[in-house]
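Record type: monomer structure entry
Structure origin: computed from sequence
Chain ID: A
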Amino acid sequence: MNAVRIYRRFSRRFSELPGNVQGAIWIAFAGLILVTMSSMVKALGASFDSFQILFFRCAVGAVALLPLALRYGFGTYATRRAGLHVVRTLVGLSAMACFFYALTQMELAGAIAIMFSRPLFTTIGAVMVLGELVRWRRATATVVGFIGILIILRPGATAFEPAALVAVLGAMLAGATAIIIKKLSATEATVVTVFWFTIGGTVLALIPAILVWRTPTGAEWGLLVLMGLLGLAGQAAMTRAFALGEASAVVSFDYLRLIFAGLIGIVLFAEVPDIWSVTGAAIIIAGTLYIIRRESRRKNPAG
């Protein structure tokens, strides 16, 4: 009973905080959950192929969505843009596959830092696909962000990791996914897009997963399911964060994920980021954060 009272008191006081403060707390919490999920992907990668891990990530989401589909009816998710949903699923799933592979092969913080370069590729895609005009400030920020990626990759250095290129490819595909979602959002509700990606992604991920399948033990089943649940919880917390606060105010706190990743990497995997990785991550953050803030403030779509 005391626990219920404490929760109610906390909930009441939390709801009295300004929306941006609530959003910042939620996005920091989401970052911690998602980094924990990423660390589980990395740990599971010692026993399972990244494709099998990816399948469980998608399958848990599909199982969670089925009760909603049964309650509201599958007609709720009807679409006339099946082709574009297929493309979105293929591209989005490929992005996740690249990221999961990178997590299993390279430092946790480094993989997540490269993932944060996604807005840089989205900017390029917006120019090439949507015909948006990018002025010199956004263009400069994009170039700066790519310099950060090169610092992390260090082409020609003995420390160069081929898996990092896969992470960059994942960021490119994630940027392309953002462009596709933007096109879908003109006619499709968010719940429809999420539904078809989750179901389609599960089916497509099963194909390569079967080829590398290793039957999990009892404990491993629990870890794989927990990993999928954490992915769902993290996305839900992220959505809640942007619902409560302004994007330009709360997005900065998403970069706490890099700090969480660094700490977890040190404690669990004995990974100590070197000066190049830290510098590159800082430059990527600067470039992407500028682009995000610029996008949230500009009124002219061509700004």
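Annotation 1: The chain is about 80% helix and 0% strand.
Annotation 2: The radius of gyration is 20 Å.
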